Amino acid sequence: MNTPQNTPEKPLILLVDDMPANLHVLAAALKAEHRIKTATSGLAALDLADREDRPELILLDVMMPGMNGIEVLRHLREKPATRDIPVIFVSADTSEQSQLEGLELGADDYLTKPVVTTVLVARVRNLLQRKRAEAQLRLAAHVFEHSGEAILITDGKNRITEANPAFTRMTGYTLDEVRGQDPRILSSGRTSREEYAEMWQAIHQNGFWQGEMWDRCKNGAVYPKLMTISVVRNPQGDIDFFISSFADLSEQKANEEKIRHLAHHDALTGLPNRMHLQISLEQSLATARRDHAEVALMFIDLDRFKIINDTLGHNIGDGLLVEVARRLRDSVRDSDLVARLGGDEFVVALNDCDTANAAAHIAEKILANLAQPYQIEGNPLHTTPSIGISIYPHDGGDLDTLMKNADTAMYHAKAVGRNNFQFFSEGMNKSTNDRLMLENSLHQALQRDEFTVHYQPQADMRSGRLVGAEALIRWQHPERGMVSPLQFIPLAEENGMILAIGTWVLREVCRQIKAWREQGLNGLRFAVNLSPRQFRHEKLVDDILAILAEFEVPAAALELEITESSVMDNPDAAVLQLKKLNQHGLSIAIDDFGTGYSSLNYLKRFPVSKLKIDRSFVMDIPGDANDTAIAIAVIQLAKSLGLNVVAEGVETAEQQQFLEEQGCDFLQGYRYSKPLDAAAFAEFALARA
Ligand code: C2E
Ligand code: MG
Ligand code: MG
Question: Under DSSP, is residue 667 helix (H, G, I), strand (E, B) or coil?
């Protein structure tokens, strides 16, 4: 029998009695403040007690047919779900025995029939209140025990009365060790008297304080903590307890420190980053301003780093940067600053260095250290830096100007051949602008059809017979006139345009060869220059084959000139690429031989057919003993490897005679012919056919 007016917020009470009349009396007394369920037998009571809508209290008749109240209670106490439901026995049996038995089993109270309504209501209310308070205490105790924060409770005289396990974990002190003591035993001595005074004032005034504080563990370690103190007052307003809870901030502080470090340092190399550099340079400049001292700023950029990164992968690139960073650090004094701006750009700042000499000295040291071979994950690597230097106060009074000018000087170092350092000078800004303008117009040159190809004839040294020509690109700039490939090829190599330009040259040369063959100009071999980036391109072989097929040009009519650096940066990949080219009948010449690393060891492995002695050696033959010796050595080497030798830049009869005597196979140079445009070359060739 359930009363219909049940509302959920009122506590549910289960009334159990075999006499419905008794149930009625009880329900009438309690229904104002409680929801009521009733049962007339022990079994029905057990069933209702174990429903989801669990009663908060059971009033249980002791004397019932079948299962009596005492048995019902025993069953309730056995089951975890019903174990904690408070029970009040209601019985006419006032014998002490049954009361004791009931209480022993865990009945919470005992009422005798006939029940006095007011007593019943009061008892029920008290019991429920007590049970709720107990539940809250249990919860509080649980929180106290299991809180991640240390909790310390002191009495009104601020003597420790309670401490939780987190407190012991954090401080190393057990409750027994600190009970009765003043919490100041935890103090590290770092907090000042004034700070404590402020804290106590806040506690007494507001009943609350929160702040950071340094304390000392039992083992002596000092740690930062975030602490909250609140007071518990009794009804008279006196302080009964102080409750302080605190969290160890060590980890958070360490993280903050780590974040601060990350914000100021480059994650890869651990060097200070741009932000750090700016902050410390501003300081250095301020000091230098005051002391009338100088500061040298070096911009360092690795030559050809992008190629290494692109061809060998970022892991290897990263490995190289880490090693470069280490060598840079080793090249300077501890007091000097080495920073990484990003990519392959580094900055070195030399403080209290009073002359440009010191900067030059360090720059030389950096060049030497960075040029040493690298071994990155088993790859032998080679890289060199270009360094630009600006000096405070001569090259700028503020950081921005100094940085910009060092950067400009660095670009000049690159422009004059890389692997060197340059001091900033005013003239550089102008030529940097020139470079930018040139780069802009280079983008349009292809579309506007401003390129042409000239052909410089090559002859057999002994017979003087024409054997072919080297194709040399020309740029007819609308305003500047003829721009030298020495000016724009390096630019195109750097910004990647070389791939499009290179393909254009190959197509143009093959188109021309086809046209000449149709005119009866046969049997000549045309050399096309490939820049390093072109040579490394994975589609190179496919592209060349497609172009040859398109213009029906046999592979034997084409020769490819590559430089030493094309092959030396990654010899293993180069060998593969060369083999592929060879397989398709394309011959390869090494251009400008003698100017680069000239690793003779590797030369043996490269399937090339020709060496071209660089013009710089030919120029001073036979006057300069050194150059002469190199020319002789190159020719000897080529012979011993079964390679042909071409001498380029041959201008005089003397040079020609000397080279011929040494056994050089081919010659190219003004002595024989300057580069000619296509029409002039055809005329030149037909005259000798
Ligand atoms: P290179 O391949 O070593 O070409 C030889 C350079 O020497 C040419 O300069 C040629 O005009 C010059 N030369 C030839 N004989 C003599 C001589 O007797 N005396 C003097 N003083 N110079 C002589 P050029 O045409 O200015 O080309 C310069 C460089 O530009 C070339 O050097 C080559 O590295 C590059 N280049 C030219 N055309 C192309 C091209 O189509 N693609 C690529 N990637 N590079 C090219
Ligand atoms: Mg060449
Ligand atoms: Mg050359």
Answer: strand
The answer to whether 36 and 53 have CB atoms below 8 angstroms apart is no
In the reported structure, the alpha carbon of residue 446 is separated from the centroid of ligand 1 by a whole-number distance in angstroms of 20
Q: What is the enclosing helix (H) or strand (E) of 322? A: helix 314-331
Q: How confident is the model at residue 98 (pLDDT cuts 50, 70, 90)?
A: low
Q: Say whether pLDDT at 6 is over 60.
A: no
d(CA 643, ligand 2 centre) in Å: 17
Closest C-alpha among 573, 599, 502 to residue 308: 573
Q: Domain locations in the chain?
A: 12-142, 147-253, 265-425, 439-687
Average pLDDT, the chain: 89
CATH code, 147-253: 3.30.450.20
Instruction: For residue 164, give both structure tokens.
Output: 């939780």
Q: Is the distance from CB of 604 to CB of 637 less than 8 angstroms?
A: no
Architecture in CATH for domain 12-142: 3-Layer(aba) Sandwich (3.40)
The number of beta carbons lying within 10 Å of the beta carbon of residue 635 is 21
Greatest mean pLDDT range, 108-112, 160-164, 190-194, 249-253: 160-164
Say how many Å lie between the CA of residue 561 and the centre of ligand 2: 6
Q: What percent of the chain has pLDDT over 70?
A: 96
Distance 647 CA to ligand 3 centre (A): 9
Phi then psi for 244, rounded to 5 degrees? -115, 135
Range 569-587 average pLDDT:
90
How close is the Cα of 484 to the center of ligand 1, in Å?
A: 9
Which residue puts its alpha carbon closest to atom 6 of ligand 1? Answer: 649
Nearest atom in ligand 1 to the alpha carbon of residue 502 is 42
Both tokens of 392, joined, read 């405070």
Instruction: Find all residues with CB under 8 Å of 348, minimum gap 6, and list them.
Output: 297, 298, 300, 328, 331, 332, 336, 337, 338, 339, 362, 366
Q: Would you state the structure tokens that stand for residue 565, as one six-digit string?
A: 């650096």
Report residue 394: phi and psi, to 5°: -65, -40
Beta strands in 416-529 (DSSP E): 421-423, 451-460, 466-477, 481-483, 525-529
DSSP 3-state assignment of 251?
helix
Pocket of ligand 1 (CB under 6 A): 456, 472-473, 484-486, 489, 502, 505, 529-531, 561, 591-592, 615, 648-651, 668-670, 675
CB neighbour class for 368 (10 Å; exposed up to 12, middle 13-18, buried from 19): exposed
How does 532-542 read in b/e, with b if 16+ C-beta sit within 10 Å? bbbbbbeebee
Q: How does pLDDT run across 595-622, given as a tens digit for each residue?
A: 765 566 677 788 899 999 988 889 888 8
Whether the predicted pLDDT of 14 surpasses 70? yes
What's the average model confidence in pLDDT over 3-8?
47
Residues 500-536 have pLDDT tens digits of 999 999 999 999 999 999 999 999 999 999 999 999 9
Tell which CATH architecture fits domain 265-425: 2-Layer Sandwich (3.30)
**Residues 209, 210, 214, 217: is their CA dihedral positive or negative?**
positive
Residues facing residue 59 across a β-bridge: 15, 88
Task: State the Cα–Cα distance between residues 528 and 506, nearest whole angstrom.
Answer: 7
668 CA closest ligand 1 atom index: 15
CATH topology of domain 439-687: TIM Barrel (3.20.20)
Report strand pairing: 222-233 vs 109-112. Answer: unpaired
Tokens standing for residue 496 = 């990647």
Nearest to 543 by CA among 586, 513, 506, 585: 506
Which DSSP helix (H) or strand (E) runs through 58? Answer: strand 57-61
CA distance linking residue 418 with residue 302, whole number of Å: 9
Tracing tokens 């890869």 back to the chain, one arrives at 268
pTM, two decimal places: 0.51
d(CA 180, CA 402): 66
